[in-house]
Structure formats: C-alpha cells, structure tokens
Design brief:
4-stranded antiparallel sheet; about 575 residues; 5-stranded mixed sheet; alpha+beta; about 15% strand
Length: about 575
C-alpha cells in the first residue's frame, strides 16, 4: 500500500475499508492476520461489496480436490505465501481500497491506498484464481508438467496433488515452484508422505508441523480434514462446545453444524445431528426460545458420542502401491422413515486377483416432513446415489465398471420401465436416474448387507469407528463376483400390479369410413362390423369381454347398426323432423 495525501481526496469513487486483526497462534507461519470489511455500509448506504461482482467459479470443488488427493500413492500439499498480496489491482480501481491507519493512539490518522487484491472483497477469490489459470495457460509450453497441476489442483492458495511415481512427483514440484516464482508467488509449508519428495525443498519452506517420524500428534489441516503425513492417514477435528446458560435454537443449530465433513465419510453420525435439527423445526420453536430438557439432552448425548471420533483414522490412499488392471465403482442407497442416503466404494483388483475396497464418498438427507411412502424415499435415495456418482466421476474420471445396489425391488422395477409408465413423482425421478446412470448396472442387495442402511437409520460415533461394513463395504465385495448376491432378473413390470403405475385412459376415434360402399358382400360386411363393435365393447367393458366366434346376437346388432347408418345417409331430413316432433314430408 502507499500513503495518500488529503489532496487526493476528491469527488471520484472511493471507499475506506474498516479492518481489524485476527490472532492465530496455532498457525505455523502467519500468526497475525488482517480482515477487511468490504461489506460495511458507507455514508451513501452502499458498501463496496454491494457493487462488486463475485465472478464465476472457475476452480474445482473442494470435494473433487480432496477426492483426487486420495487417489495417488505419493502426495504433496503446500500453499502460496500471501497470495492476494502478490497480485496488483489496476490503478484506477485502487481508490476503492483505502484505509485509515496510525501506529499508536497518540499519532494522527494517516490514509493509505491498498494496491493489491484485498481479502474481504467479493471479487478477491475470483481474481486470485483467475491469475493462476492465466499463468497455467501462458506458461504451458515452458512448464508442461506444472501447467495442468496449477490449473486443476489448487483450491484458492492451497495445493493438493500427487503421483504414483516419486520421480514424476519431484519433477512436477520443481516445475510448479519455478512457474509460480516467475510471477512472484512463493510456495511454502510443503508436506508429503514421502521424505524423499520433501528433500528437494529448502528446510524453511517445509511445514514445521510435518514431522515424518513416530510423532503421531503432528498433523496438518488439509482443507477441513486433518492429514497425518507420517502415517498417511486422515482424521477429523472434533468440535468443542462450551456450556451455555440458555440452550436456544440458534446455538443448537450452530453446534450441530460444526463438524466439517466434505466427503461425507461421517454421514451415519452427522445424519443424527440433522434429525435433531429437524425436530426443532417440527416443534416450531422460536429462535430465542429456551429449549425443553428433552432437546437439550439430545444435544448433550450427541456431544458425548462424537468424542469417539478422535480415535478415528482413515487411510488416505484408497488403492494400493501396486498397479491395478481393473477398478470398479460400487454405489449403495437406502432409505427409512427418518432419513435416506447413498455411499460409493472403489474396488481395486490387482493382477493376482486380490481386491482392496475403500469408501470414497457418501451423502445423507433427512426425510421430508411431508409423509411419503418408503418406496418413494427409496427412489429418492437412488436419485441421491445417481448425483453422487456423477460427482465422483467428474472428480476422478470416467470408469466403465459401475454397479449400483439397492435393497428395494420396487425401485428396480421402476427403473427398468420407461418413465412415462409411472405417475409424475416417480416418472420425473426415474427419468433423471436413467439419464445419470446410463453407464451403470443396477442390482439388488440384501438389507443386512447394505452399508447405506447405516446412513438411513443413523449410527452413534462409536458404532462406525471400527465398522468394516461402512469403511470397506460388504465382505463379499472383497471376494470374486461369484460370491456376490444373486442377481434378480427383472422383466418389464405389469403396471397394473405395481405401485405408482400411471392410469391410462383409452380414447377411441373412429374415422368416417363408409363400410357399406367398401364391401360388396353383405355377409363379409356384417362380420367386419361385428368385430368393430366387439372391439369398442371390450375397450369400454373389461369385466365382460366378448371373445370367440361371432354370435348371432352380434350379427343382429351389426345389421341394426348398418340400417341406422343407411337411414342417416338417405333419410336424414326425415330423422331430423321426427327428432324435433315434426311431421315428415309428404313426398
């Protein structure tokens, strides 16, 4: 920033940013941060953020980045030092980033103008991200290994990427450091699960908390998860809730939402918190109302149980150090009256036939307050699984071998039929599922072997820490497919015997065709007319259909019909007169 004189204060657009300090003693580098409040209203009643566009999202999602982080044998994490402060703001826009400052309370106020991208403005994340994208595009020829990583493996200033070859990882890191340094970006706080990879970086640029030895307390916060490089495992930071004098709705909702789980690996536990929050909505408590003891006890029980998660250790690498010939994705969905959910596993098959199965991602939803049938909730769970599958495929790439499992035979019947077969609620969701899972196969799994069942009913924290069904899927998934559940062969469903079948009304339109002039044989004309009358009768009266040979009564009825047709054609004036009660013409 630069100091500005009072002469520079004129009628042109300008804005003074309020700011304050944030102390972060646990941080290994920047222990004092500054926050600028660009949302503070000015004298005109408008803040800077009110007139700034945030810009589109051009980076990968956090979920995609963390998911790819688990796909590689050797990984590196780092961040860019003071990223925003390395990017100039165009000089004509700098007057919108002015501040007041003085060294102590006795000194006079001075005015400064911030010249770089400022944290706290709406556009700052986009501007910084856009600079990285442009850097990767401009330097792609000079740094061919680094360019795709810079383009896809940054989340703001955090770098997460990996390789299955240690030499490739080191070469890529060298190019990334050089590319970023060419425009003033400095990568620091390097962490890796390989000491060999860290040796290429100076000691001062390494994460001091990353000690690759037996010190199990040394962990690095990786975009919301705790990563322990020495053992290459992931863990969770368990929130601590201070006791309060009054448990009101605002506090309960805030506390229940404090467990950050981007991949949904704790879905069976978090869904219990969602159920508590839904209970608050069912009772329609005011926000500042002191909640009854029953609700307070639910919150205290949840706090006590999630303390077991401190012992949870999840392998970061979800495959194996060996190269795999085949990778399969297996998804599961399930629903109950309270909630529904979905989870996806990666099944890696080695050359010797051994299998490794790990949970990739999961999602949970609370059942709506409006009562719906279990079959409909099972369909909602299948749709949730379809969206989760799409997210996984976009993150880690397409796979040919995808199998999706549900314990609802009704849902399987719905999915094998065309969407128009069903009523609107089912038809819309079946169409969406068929579109999203056209590359997958749906199969039936017994309820007792469905890991998504843990999401639909919820499990206390101690119940999933060592739960192999949740972390590694059903036991048969680690064996050959000959031991999988028997596949149910589904034929095209009989819609009159299954739920949600659309009721079809048949409308018959007969064109004006003169059968009398078309056929010269009276007997043939009578038989054809009888068959037409039989068809009309069977469509309108399914309880007493006419079948078999044509009867004399049908011939007689056909004769009367033909006579009426002839009279309508040749005596229509007389029939109209009789219908109105008038005499017919004497001629």
């Amino acid at each position: 920033m630069r100091e500005i004189s009072p002469k520079e204060i004129d009628d042109s657009p300008q804005y003074f940013l309020p700011h304050h300090a944030i102390l972060r003693p646990e941080n290994s580098t920047t222990k004092l941060g500054t926050v600028f409040d660009a949302s503070c209203k000015s004298q005109s009643g408008v803040s800077l953020n009110d007139v700034l566009l945030a810009g589109p999202t051009i980076q990968n999602t956090l979920i995609a980045l963390v998911m790819r982080f688990r796909m590689h044998a050797y990984v590196i994490s780092a961040d860019i030092e003071k990223m925003y402060r390395q990017i100039w703001v165009y000089y004509t826009d700098q007057p919108l980033q002015r501040i007041y400052w003085r060294d102590d309370k006795e000194s006079p106020l001075k005015m400064f103008q911030l010249q770089t991208v400022t944290y706290g403005t709406n556009s700052a994340p986009f501007l910084a991200t856009r600079v990285l994208q442009q850097l990767a595009e401009d330097e792609a020829e000079n740094y061919p290994l680094a360019a795709p990583v810079v383009r896809t493996s940054f989340y703001m200033d955090d770098l997460l990427f990996g390789c299955n070859n240690i030499d490739t990882l080191k070469s890529t890191c060298t190019q990334i450091v050089a590319m970023l340094h060419s425009v003033g970006f400095t990568l620091r706080k390097f962490s890796s699960n390989s000491q060999n990879a860290l040796e290429i970086f100076p000691e001062q640029l390494r994460e001091t908390r990353t000690l690759l030895d037996l010190d199990a307390d040394q962990t690095v916060k990786t975009l919301g998860l705790l990563w322990e490089p020495s053992t290459d495992v992931l863990s969770y930071k368990i929130p601590t809730w201070s006791p309060v004098s009054r448990y009101i709705k605002t506090i309960i909702v805030s506390q229940m939402s404090s467990l950050f789980d981007p991949l949904g690996l704790l879905s069976p536990v978090i869904v219990l918190a969602k159920m508590v929050v839904q209970t608050l909505w069912k009772q329609d408590y005011p926000w500042d109302y002191c909640l009854p003891p029953t609700v307070q006890q639910m919150r205290l029980d949840y706090q006590q149980h999630i303390a077991f998660l401190k012992d949870l250790r999840i392998p970061r690498f979800i495959s194996s150090l060996n190269s795999f010939d085949n990778i399969e994705l297996h998804g599961f969905s399930d629903a109950s009256k309270r909630a529904y959910g979905a989870c996806i596993y990666m099944r890696s098959i080695a050359e010797n036939g051994s299998c490794v199965v790990h949970l990739i991602a999961a999602k949970s939803r609370i059942a709506p307050l409006e009562v719906k049938s279990i079959a409909r909730l099972e369909l909602c769970a299948a749709l949730l699984l379809s969206h989760l599958l799409q997210m996984v495929l976009e993150s880690i790439g397409q796979h040919n071998n995808i199998i999706l499992w549900t314990d609802s035979t009704i849902v399987l019947h719905w999915l094998v039929a065309t969407p128009s077969t069903w009523q609107t609620f089912v038809a819309n969701r079946v169409a969406e599922i068929q579109r999203l899972t056209s590359c997958a196969i749906w199969r039936h799994v017994p309820s007792a072997e469905n890991p998504a069942d843990l999401i639909s009913r919820g499990v206390q924290a101690y119940g999933i820490v060592e739960n192999s069904l949740w972390w590694n899927g059903p036991i048969w998934l680690s064996n050959t497919n000959q031991r999988w559940p028997e596949n149910i062969i589904l034929s095209y469903p009989q819609t009159d015997k299954i739920l949600e079948a659309r009721k079809i009304a048949l409308h018959l339109t007969v064109s004006n065709c003169n059968l009398i002039e078309r056929y010269s044989s009276l007997s043939k004309l009578l038989r054809i007319t009888s068959l037409c009358r039989r068809f009309v009768h069977n469509c309108s009266s399914k309880d007493s259909p006419r079948i078999g040979s044509i009867t004399n009564d049908e011939i007689h009825g056909a004769t009367l019909s033909l006579v009426r047709v002839a009279q309508q054609e040749y005596f229509h004036r007389e029939l109209e007169a009789l219908a109105k009660g008038n005499p017919v013409s004497r001629s």
